[in-house]
């Protein structure tokens, strides 16, 4: 139940199933990879948008928590994105705007997942 995927950019991603399903727990589950990719997609957007807004951003972490349907297909039904944005003199309204733009316009992954999941967002700013 271990799988290797080669991406379009030539990188390898390993995935595995849960032990009770025949996997060996050596890598993330495919749906975990979907969620991680979505977090990376939106964090990338937020950093770019804040840089273009002239903000002195030093870091961006996003933690996703989710719920899935109980029956197959076990799609995501709720996803919360919590951002911790680090920088100097960051303006809360610009951070909020960057998150909103990512989720409404730029992040293809979260826009796709929004078809089945209720999305919520929160953030905090840490002065560096």
UniProtKB/TrEMBL annotation:
Which InterPro entries does this UniProt record tie to the protein?
KH_dom-like_a/b, OsmC/Ohr_fam, OsmC/Ohrsf
Give the matching Pfam families: OsmC
Xref: PANTHER family: PROTEIN YHFA
Under which name does UniProt file this protein? Answer: Putative redox protein
Q: Name the species this protein comes from.
A: Noviherbaspirillum humi
């Amino acid at each position: 139940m271990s799988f290797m995927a080669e991406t379009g950019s030539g990188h390898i991603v390993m995935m595995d199933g849960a032990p009770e399903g025949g996997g060996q727990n050596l890598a993330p589950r495919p749906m975990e990879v979907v969620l991680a990719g979505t977090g990376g997609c939106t964090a990338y957007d937020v950093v770019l948008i804040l840089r273009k807004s002239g903000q002195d951003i030093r870091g961006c972490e996003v933690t996703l928590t989710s719920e899935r349907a109980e029956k197959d297909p076990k799609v995501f039904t709720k996803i919360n994105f919590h951002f911790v944005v680090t920088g100097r003199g960051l303006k809360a309204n610009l951070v909020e705007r960057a998150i909103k733009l990512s989720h409404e316009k730029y992040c293809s992954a979260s826009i796709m997942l929004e078809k089945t999941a209720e999305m919520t967002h929160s953030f905090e700013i840490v002065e560096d």
